[in-house]
Design goal:
With 418 residues, the protein is an alpha/beta fold. Helix content is 33%, strand content 30%. The longest helix is centred in the last third of the chain and has 26 residues.
Amino acid sequence: MANLEELSVALDIGTTKVVCLVGSVKPGGCVDIKGLGLATSRGLRNGRIIDIDQTVDAINQAVDQASDMSGADIAAAYVGIAGEHIVGRKFEGSVSIQTGTVTEDDIKRCVKNAMILGMSTSSEILAKVPMEYQIDDRTGIQNPVGMCGTALGVKLHVFSADHNALYDMVKCVEDADLAIQNVLLESIASAESVLYPAEKQQGVALIDIGGGTTDMAVFIKGSVHHVYEVGFAGDLLSYDLATGLRIPLETAGLLKETHGCCFPGLIPDDYVVELVGRDGQGDTRVDASAACSVLSGRVDELLGYLAADLAKSGLEDSVRNIVLTGGTSQLRGLPQKAVEFFNRPVRVGFPLNVSGLGDAVVSPIFSTAVGLLLYGLQDRDPLPLNGDGRKASPGFLARLGRRVKAVFTGAGVQERMR
């Protein structure tokens, strides 16, 4: 068996698929993918668990595949979460600098002061991300440790999840006999794998369009400043095709994946798509223009929501480009549509700097899973495991009752549940 101390495991539990990745870091920072597991997901709808047993079965299938391929006895993983229940709120706080030089303890006190108003009792904090620090009259500071002054301030972005939604997801993972090393927002995980550092500094909106949910995260000066979640994505496009064209849902999904296009200017006149029937069904002939019209209308609705939210956030002028990722980002014509709505350069984001089985995961479908893996490989204080390598006690659900850990970026501080 491979040495788990040298490996990280990512678990992406999506509406249409569950992905498990096992990997390590090679010299130079490249991620070496050693194991990949992929299972069909039928236990979620729009990012929420609707069937625990089916979700646990899919997790087990994906984990077993990744374990067999990598030779690792998988006992714990970094897990992603998404959905409309995710909320971001902004806080500000300040404290005196006790020794005249900023320490990590000063940062913890400052963040605690910013959080004095607290959060809803129905939500659980996932992450507290400092957008910037201020020392006396100096603003825009990213890492204040070691700097001199008398007062330290912080502008803090706090992300939380609905307690019940998080509980259900965690229960599924633990029922699959896995420990959870951390729970990370999927939009932030995807950013780890597909965004260049320069993009995060200059201002970028990452739009991750999966099967059941669409997530948007805005990065400015290296930190996430805004998130937005929409409760529909690629699955709804398939349903629209099935309804609008009066074809089976499975055929509609195949049509979307193989010949789907949402930009009318890319479809030749009188183009007809022929799909081979499955499971005894006859072949299907579809007018490509009609299919494009159906997809175009729903994509317009989705991009309209995202563009309106970006404008409402007040950050629109700080965003220089748009990056699309997730399985549905591969829909033909989507980048052209996005340019019309955002009036900015648009590209499709693929996982960066991967090797080993990298060719198999260099796809927008795996952006979140690769990002979770990258985060895990960079995490310097993993959840301790018992001597037999199995789940540490108490489990994540027990610790959740005391507080989900908060991840700090920029200052290298990480506060964990105790």
